[in-house]
Amino acid sequence: MNKELIMALDALEKENGISKEIMLDAIEKSLMDEYKTEFDKADNGRVELDRTTGEFHIYSDRTVVEEVQIPENRQDKKKEKYVSGTEIALEDARKIKPDCQIGDVVTIEVKSEEFSRKAAKNAKNTIVQTIREQEKDALYREFHSKEKELVTGVVQRINENGDVVVDLGRTQATLKKDENFQDKEFKSGDRIKVYVVSVANKDKTGPSIKISRKSQELVKKLFEEEVTEIKEGTVEIMAIAREAGSRTKMAVKANIQHIDPVGACVGINGARVKNIVNELGNEQIDIVEWDDNPAQLIVNALSPAKVVSAMADEEEKKAKIVVSEQQLSLAIGKSGQNVRLAAKLTGYGIDIKSEADAEVFEDEYYSVVEYSDDELVISEDVDNEEYDAASDDVSEE
User: Fold this and answer.
1) Which tens digit of pLDDT belongs to each residue from 191-211?
2) Measured between alpha carbons, how far is residue 229 from residues 195, 251, 261, 267, 296 in Å?
């Protein structure tokens, strides 16, 4: 042990966040354990490690006796003076403390040369193991602080099963195929943004980091990064409904008057939302204004469809919507996606009808019969081709 050790520990603390003091304590404990193994478990010795020079000393308190009796099981061990465990002969003790008497306690220093080569090797192994454990703990603390946040990594490789291995700097994480959903075609070397779902500390392997691109929180964090007003709190994201890789609806409100929350999120010439759309592999994003009136919120959520009238039952969490015949397919969306996302966004079950059928709203024809969780029943009368044409018209506008 010398000053080079202290310098190495200083570097570990600075570069990897491993506590120098914890390492020094572990070294002291390792030396003490090896000392007791080499000499006597009953010995009440102690280790003192100089935090500046790296030099260590081992001291042992011995009771003064007339003559030390070495146990038979120690006969094959070294019989040098002072290596008797808890006692020291009066003759030897007086060389250290001339006026000592039988029964007194004398402190001696045990020279490091008395350690065997095996003991030194075991102590080194303990130190290495402690460093590894500290590195794992430091890594866990680093990424635990990033839980529920957005991080940027680099794609290392794509496995045969479609999983993407992402380098996050000091460790790697795997983006499972069902969390990636093929929103973009990644290749090695691509920079990728992922949402940290959770971080678990595994004793043997270190931190296990679960990442996602499927979570609606990914969209939220992307807007927080891109839109200054959201980061500052002047615009607030109230709700998000997402079908990853296809479409997202997001409701926002302004916390300060005279701010257009939708415009802030879209940006000049759509620059802000385009950046996020590009990051998500051209996933469509509808941004609507939040309204405390549930009927108006549902009307907003059904955008780009135009609603003729809306009724909302706050107790039952159900709404009845009337649209023109021309807007019906657009309001429902392809395979019911538009109304399904609107229902998720608002928390209301939504029934949609055309004006022609509004008078018999309670009768047999329903565009959407019921919405519960992710289950949506759609009338067979809805024509997907008609919806596609309507969507294209809106896009061109």
Assistant:
1) 999 999 999 987 677 789 999
2) 21, 15, 8, 11, 24
Q: For residue 283, which amino acid is it?
A: E
Tens digits of residue pLDDT in 228-259: 999 999 999 999 999 999 999 999 999 999 99
Spatial neighbors of 103 by CB under 8 A, at least 6 apart, are 63, 64
* Contact predicate 202/208, CB 8 Å: yes
Place of tokens 């019911």: 336
Contact 327, 355 (CB under 8 A): no
Cα–Cα distance, 193 to 366 (Å, whole number): 41
> Do residues 378 and 367 touch, judged by C-beta distance below 8 A?
yes
Chain-centre distance for alpha carbon 339: 33
**Three-class secondary structure of residue 42 per DSSP:** coil
Contact 107, 59 (CB under 8 A): yes
* Nearest CA among 368, 277, 276 for reference residue 329: 368
Size of the chain, expressed as the number of residues it contains: 397
Q: What band does 69 get if pLDDT is binned at 50, 70 and 90? A: confident
The radius of gyration of the chain's CA atoms, rounded to the nearest angstrom, is 36
**CB environment 177-214: b (16+ within 10 A), e (fewer):** eebbbebbebeeeeebbbbbbebeeeeeebbebbbbbb
Q: What is the mean pLDDT of the chain?
A: 82
Omega into 207 within 30° of 0, i.e. cis? no
12 close to 131: Cβ distance less than 8 angstroms: yes
Q: Report the run of H or E that residue 160 belongs to, with start and end.
A: none
